[in-house]
Design goal:
By secondary structure, the protein is mostly helical. It contains eight helices and three strands; from the N terminus they run αβααααβααβα.
């Protein structure tokens, strides 16, 4: 979400990126997240009773402003105004991101939160099977050709098998799988 917020701030002139700075993007929902749409639909009774109850218990219902702001671009919960804001943010993202890590597998690394992302990856009606549980690869990589990405931590544009939290460096690196090494990827950028 930070990538989208920063891109929006750049696009509207609320801030600028100094020439001495480098923007490293990670797991940004640049065309939104189907998780937002799913929660909004669950809270309004459009999915099933189990997800409605989970939304009530976890405090996701009613959805907060932050969650609503991640509605999928041109989707059921997006507005024409949001779509224009997405377009402006996407341009700032495309013009300024120097390195990018996006997930294509919600299972990710072995961790205490792995099962949650497995459940999200299976339950949320993502538009692509390539997602990190919360954000689809196509949303994170929006504006960059897929051919620019590699599956090795040495690649500046890194298409990983990590879930959304793994890309926050919460579980370190895989011991042997090079497309599950977020810490090494970041270290290589330094």
């Amino acid at each position: 979400m930070g990538n989208l917020m920063f891109a929006g701030a750049l696009a509207t002139g609320k801030c600028s990126l100094d020439s001495s700075s480098t923007w490293v993007g990670m797991a940004g929902p640049m065309i939104g997240s189907m998780a937002s749409d799913f929660v909004q639909e669950s809270c309004s009774g459009e999915t099933n009773i189990m997800w409605e109850e989970i939304g009530d218990i976890t405090g996701r219902c009613p959805p907060n402003t932050g969650l609503k702001s991640l509605a999928y671009e041109n989707g059921n919960h997006s507005t024409p105004s949001m779509n224009k804001e997405y377009e402006a943010a996407q341009m700032a993202y495309r013009e300024n991101v120097a390195a990018l890590m996006c997930g294509r597998s919600y299972s990710g690394l072995v961790s205490k939160y792995q099962a949650k992302f497995w459940a999200l990856g299976h339950s949320i009606p993502h538009k692509s099977k390539e997602n990190d549980g919360m954000v689809e690869f196509q949303s994170c990589a929006h504006g960059f050709p897929e051919s620019k990405f590699g599956d090795n931590y040495r690649d500046r544009f890194y298409k990983t098998k990590l879930n959304h939290y793994d890309m926050q460096f919460l579980a370190g690196d895989s011991v042997m799988n090079e497309d599950k090494m977020p810490v090494k990827w970041f270290e290589c950028l330094l």
